[in-house]
Amino acid sequence: MNTPLSVDLNCDLGESFGAYRIGNDDQILPYVTSANIACGFHAGDPGVMRKTVQLCLQHNVAIGAHPGLPDLVGFGRRNMAVSAEEVYDMVIYQIGALQAFVQAEGGTLHHVKPHGALYNMAATDVKLAEAIAEAVYKVKPEALLYGLAGSELIKAANRLNLVAANEVFADRTYQQDGTLTSRRQPDAFITDPDKAASQVLLMVQEGKVQSQQGTDINIQADTICIHGDGPHALEFARHIQETLQREGIALATPKVQRP
Prior knowledge:
- It comes from Pontibacter lucknowensis.
- Strand 2 (34-38), helix 2 and strand 3 (62-66) form a beta-alpha-beta unit.
- The chain has a single domain (6-251), classed as TIM Barrel.
- The chain starts with 5 loop residues before the first strand and ends in an 8-residue tail after the last strand.
- Helix content is 37%, strand content 18%.
- The longest helix has 21 residues, at 84-104.
- The chain is α/β, with parallel strands linked by helices.
- Helix 4 (116-124) crosses helix 5 (126-139) and helix 7 crosses helix 8.
- The protein has eight helices and ten strands.
- The chain has a seven-stranded parallel barrel with strand order 1-2-3-4-5-6-9, surrounded by six helices.
């Protein structure tokens, strides 16, 4: 008997701060199985972190830290000239902040997923990837590390015997080398829910995604990301969940074997 397919559906949440409200966290949570909570550097603040942790626990959604670069104005999506040592320190700092709120609310930190520019930089930079993986290993070695499928971050996690979850994107396009199309490009985003759902099914069922160059590339889909700050985030989450369920694909947090 074939083992039924299952996949995690994650969303970046807790990205409001101060007087600014970003995303529809309480509405999206019923459709996802794990959440990546901003830790105050690119977005989020202490009150938002606490409330988002509480919401995740209410909805039985796995909680992850979402550390980013210290760039509120750029929402953590601008590259910065940071050293591996700086990345190590800032990731430990942010994991520790969220883990304190999780512990205070009686929960467990499930995973860590870097945000934005830090995520993309670590996908191709070995030293930055190793700094992030080392930070997770030192603080919470049983936590999963979410990273771009097949990237240097996944390889760094494997070298430290961390559980790595290969992440794919429902609303982003891919280049032939497996990286995401730059947000500066007009074809970086998928705005049609049906097209996004088709890409998700191809990745989950066949382990492939079509690049912008028109060729299929191999990809492993352990977890699917939906951006919580996107204008169609709620519609995407609902549509993708329904599509996966219709295809008999279970939604569950990643169960990835240690390397």
